[in-house]
Amino acid sequence: MLVSALLTSLLINSGLCVLFFTLYSILRKQPSNYEVYMPRLLAEGESNTSSIFNLERLIPSPDWVKTAWQLTEDDLLSSSGLDAVVFMRLINFSLRVFLFAGVIGVFVLLPINCSGNQLQYVDFTDLSNNSLDVFTISNVNNGSSKLWIHFVAVYLVTIFVCCLLYYEYRYISQRRTDYFLSSKPQPHQFTILVRSIPVSAGSGVSEKVDSFFREYHPSTYLSHIVVRRTNKLQSLINDAKKLYTRLIHLQSDPNQQKYKRSSCFGLFGRKVNLVDHYEKKLEDIEENVRLEQSEVSLAGEEVRSAFVSFKSRYGAAVALHLQQSTNPTHWVTEQAPEPHDVYWPFFSSSFLRRWISKLVVILACILLTVLFLIPVVVVQGLTNLNQLEVWFPFLTSVLTITFVSQVITGYLPSLILLLFLKMVPPVMEFLSSIQGYISNSDIQKSACSKVLWFTIWNIFFATVFSGSVLYKVSLFLDPKNIPSRLAVAVPAQASFFIAYVVTSGWTSTSSELFRIFPLLWSLIKRPFTASRDTELEVPGIPYHSHTPRILFFVLLGINYFFLAPLILPFLLVYLCLGYIIYRNQFINVYAPQYETAGKFWPIVHNSMIFSLVLMHAIAVGIFTLKKLSLASTLVFPLPVLTLLFNEYCRKRFLPNFIAYPAESLIRKDRQDENDPTMPEFLDELISFYQDPALMPIHYSGSSDRLNSPLLSSVHQAQV
Amino acid sequence: MLVSALLTSLLINSGLCVLFFTLYSILRKQPSNYEVYMPRLLAEGESNTSSIFNLERLIPSPDWVKTAWQLTEDDLLSSSGLDAVVFMRLINFSLRVFLFAGVIGVFVLLPINCSGNQLQYVDFTDLSNNSLDVFTISNVNNGSSKLWIHFVAVYLVTIFVCCLLYYEYRYISQRRTDYFLSSKPQPHQFTILVRSIPVSAGSGVSEKVDSFFREYHPSTYLSHIVVRRTNKLQSLINDAKKLYTRLIHLQSDPNQQKYKRSSCFGLFGRKVNLVDHYEKKLEDIEENVRLEQSEVSLAGEEVRSAFVSFKSRYGAAVALHLQQSTNPTHWVTEQAPEPHDVYWPFFSSSFLRRWISKLVVILACILLTVLFLIPVVVVQGLTNLNQLEVWFPFLTSVLTITFVSQVITGYLPSLILLLFLKMVPPVMEFLSSIQGYISNSDIQKSACSKVLWFTIWNIFFATVFSGSVLYKVSLFLDPKNIPSRLAVAVPAQASFFIAYVVTSGWTSTSSELFRIFPLLWSLIKRPFTASRDTELEVPGIPYHSHTPRILFFVLLGINYFFLAPLILPFLLVYLCLGYIIYRNQFINVYAPQYETAGKFWPIVHNSMIFSLVLMHAIAVGIFTLKKLSLASTLVFPLPVLTLLFNEYCRKRFLPNFIAYPAESLIRKDRQDENDPTMPEFLDELISFYQDPALMPIHYSGSSDRLNSPLLSSVHQAQV
Lengths: 719, 719
Description:
InterPro entries (chains A, B): Csc1-like, CSC1/OSCA1-like_7TM, CSC1/OSCA1-like_cyt, CSC1/OSCA1-like_N
Oligomer: homodimer
Distance between the termini of chain A: 55 Å
GO cellular component, one term (chains A, B): plasma membrane
Helix content of chain A: 55-70%
Radius of gyration of chain A: 29 Å
Number of helices of chain A: 30
Keywords (chains A, B): Calcium, Coiled coil, Ion channel, Ion transport, Membrane, Transmembrane, Transmembrane helix, Transport
Strand order of the largest sheet of chain A: 2-5-1-6
Structural class of chain A: mainly alpha
Largest sheet of chain A: 4 strands, antiparallel
Domain CSC1/OSCA1-like 7TM region (chains A, B): 358-623
Subcellular location (chains A, B): Membrane
Number of domains of chain A: 2
Shape of chain A: globular
Largest interface: A-B, 37 and 36 residues
């Protein structure tokens, strides 16, 4: 790829970014877009919803940048929880890494690469006609002693990243403990989920649970609630809920048309009072729900799982950590998620069934990864103009136009890839959800790892090797030669990945700000629905699609910083954009849906370690290729030390991300002893884990609708 | 190797076995050998030590075989503990597997192999001149449909072994629970070891432990004892102990010479009363010990570890399973071993130091494994007569003698290998002991795994590939082709391994019966020492050398049963010998040194699974080689299913082998509530974990010497 192609891509994307920023600055001020750009503020009733028109509304203003910039970590913690803090620290961490690597890369390595002439001399008179490869390590002369500077850079960056990782892990671990110690009593701290309860023929699950815990945990056991199959009920209740919201809006909004004609597209027929009509319908559904509820409660719809609550956090932890039964596959205990985080639809019961479904999902993931290679290979063909002309000869004339060819090589491939990748997070989330996780947060965490490895495999490895695979399939299955193959293939794709950072990275971040799909969706549905017909839903940030994306760019940065330092400025721009934009979104758009208290960080840590080791493998290969075998030998200790460092961190910090230690639990329990509200809290503790589908509903004819049990329980759970 | 060579080896070894059996039957009846052949009975005072000579003593009698045969599992359990039962069940298990495989192998596969003519027709007129290879699968014609019978055999044996493994795991798991539930209160059930205790400058370890557990486990904490560095003390005490035993014997034996001349080889000089002389010396040492003891107790010789005891088993388990501190590398808890099982010499304290020493030991093991290949390769050269003649031309004349060449090819290689291997278990035990394990049982368990993998790697893989490595080094580093390389190399070594079973297996078992080294040692030292000068030490069975040996033969059996079924009869003889001999040794020789309650079984299980998967890899290779690619494809599900089965067993049974479940612990604690001896037991609980080196000693001038605290504490601990 030529420099000019990169410049074209750069121009397009900068333009897009500026456009998005400007549009956002204007559109966010239009009241009709509030539910797209500040649903969170809207839900909290904090936005100024005055719809008075003034000129200021049409002038783009950057005040939101200032607000986002000034947000402190503590503010973020109190408003969006520890997970948001961890997410922002990831960006912060990456910024620091690439500032350090960027200084080394741009001011030391880049001049060295340019000064070589292995490929060609740099043509300083017409920079844009140079191939991007002259800025990579490939241009340094073979065996040149200047490569030792690259070697030192590899060591320096590894040490820097490891130190930073250590401090970050320690900091977040500390934050997690502080968060726990300062938290109010929460139901999930006192509760565990017990699965695979062995049931003999005559007795029910509930009696069994009660007798077991009364026998073996008499001093701490409080109560329990058995999980039931409620899939059918749930859909009924959803219908009722929709109807109810519609009804509320009808009643509260005086401008709303309250009558419709009963037939023929609302044109003819008798006028019907809409409110009465809906009330009638709602009553019918509620009757159905009640019937179904009593059926579920009576009949054998019990799942062999139960939420069991204890009088203290310590009691719950003891029951959690000790193997309960002589058969370890019975009475399997698990931390209970937050009540509003429970994923009800899928409660597969038996130990064996969950285990098998897990295996099936793993298999499905592997299959998906393999099948995904096909579109990626096709897309990569597009970067290769000659290939394209061979496949589609009729395009030859078009492709000779410089601009077209530049767009195709610099922009199109990344965009197509981006669209394909958009589909991956939801698919992975679905796969995780049928894997047997019991909470949305676990599902997203698992999906996060899946998406990450998927991205690394399908974007990085497939791109790096596909150019080669086309003519070197036979060498692909030879693990010993991977470093040398990486050394050949990875620098060759430097220009693709630089373009990828610009197109995919910049565009995805600014489209995140602009919220292009929600905006389109809102524009489309606006003419068809009444303005407040549907309840405003504040979205949660989908960590499982955003975290892997950032981690992947970090992986690119770490691997290319010494091969093609030119990637670093673009990455820094990407991270700066992300820094501001995500802060803004946390303030205005996303509300926390759950609180894992930083459990995403171990995924980040593992990904960083993997990036480092991959970088070392490439370094070994490249120094061998560049005929500096001493350097390639001296790189060997690095991956070993990095892995040992990782092992140490696993022992030192990871346990704190799995469960809280006895020390914290007991200290917290003692604090509560003086709390006068505790008895009340413990009394209603287990009711938090009542399946929402089984709560009595009485929307219809209810005088004080906003305090209906369903809504209030949801409200309670979120406190 | 020709059949005749195997027959020669068979003859020699059968002769040796018969000789050993006969000699044993005679020698065991001589009172002077009682301490070699029945130390256990002697120590228990059950042996008939009458030294009246009669003719019967010179006639070999097989009555011990009958006694060993009649021993029931419950008898074995009560006399030698669950570990011995598990060991015997391993032999039992192997017998059942090879009876099943043997019927298939000898009556179905062997005739098929002989009927082929891929290598040569079987010369039935002169069987002994046939190569052993005609009995292997290599002789079946390529692509022959008869190979499907081998395929079915592979499936049948895998299913049979897996079923048996499942039932055995379940049975032993059940036995373990029963054993726990029927056991008397034991100190290690109530105690945990706490390591890496964080100590601030001013305070001691002891106060820290006390305040920590009083704070966080107030209701269950009982007491604690801090571990101290006592290496120097231990050697002093050993001296005192030796002197004391000598003194006791002097006093108790009226025939003993009680005087010696004070100088010049006891010929001239003043007569000295030996008893007084020893008493004096003993007093000096004891004075030293007391000085050193007070020094250790006062000065900062505290290790940052402590044994902490609790009022109930459940309390100890809770403290064990919960992470105690917010820093997971502090207050690291571990199950306490039995008091007499504690390995005192090495108590490295800090988390980091133990971790590093573990890494160093792993590295040392790998190095040892690699360096060991050199003698093995040399030894394997001996089987190759042509090779030998090339290396040592002067031997040519000798090697032409049929008998010599047969001995060399059939017998010598295995014998040399055997001697080399004798050194491995002690070395591995030493490596495990510096790895930071705190009990002899853990050390032996770890050494057991090490020796097993060492044996598999250095005997199986090195033998299989060394013949090939000599001319095919380049192919060695190619993991993808391992099945096909195994398929070529493994059958080629069939004759070596058949000979190996006969020489190494048979000889090692019968020399185990004959106890050749202890016998020689006893014969050598007898003229130099007074008959009862040293205390009789009852040995414990070294599981870490016996278990891996049996497991290795099982691996050979499983891998060769369909390649060279001829190995199976020899293996069955080996196992039958082992069955009788080990039972006899458990009755007469070995006393239990510790009780892990069957924790060796998971090692056995893993080894079996590995054997199966290796067998499948070979099967894949061999069916490809034999041009029956459909069969080789159809074998693929087997290793996957076997590994899944293993994974299921890990989840279903393994947790029970790591710790006891809450259910059992609480049931046991409730039983004890009614036990009137419990308060007394709890009172002296922690004193069991007093380092023996720190106990007050007063041998000298003690009136009732046999009740000296040292001996009585040892006695107590063994109860």
